[in-house]
Amino acid sequence: MTEQKKPPYGIIAILFTGAFVAIFNQTLLNIALPEIMADFGIKAATAQWLVTGYMLVNGILIPASAFFIQRFSNRSIFIVAMSLFSLGTLIAGLAPTFAFLLAGRLLQASGAALMMPLLMNVMLAAFPVEKRGTAMGYFGLVMVVAPAIGPTLSGFIVQNYDWRVLFFIVLPVALIPLLLGIFKLKNLTFQNREISLDKFSLVLSSLGFGGILYGFSSAGTLGWSNPVVYITIAVGLISLVLFVLRQLKLDEPLLEMRIYKYPMFALSSVISIVLSMSMFSAMILMPIYIQTIKGISPINSGLLMLPGALIMGMMSPITGRLFDKWGAKVLAIPGLALVVITTFLFSQLTLDTSYWQIMIIYSIRMLGISLVMMPVMTNGLNTLPMKAYPHGTAINNTLQQVSGAIGSAFLITLMNTRTESAAADLLESGTAPENIVNMAMLEGINFSFFISTFIALTALLLALFIKKPERPVTEQEKEMVYTRKEATES
Question: For residue 456, what are the domain limits?
Answer without folding.
Answer: 259-490
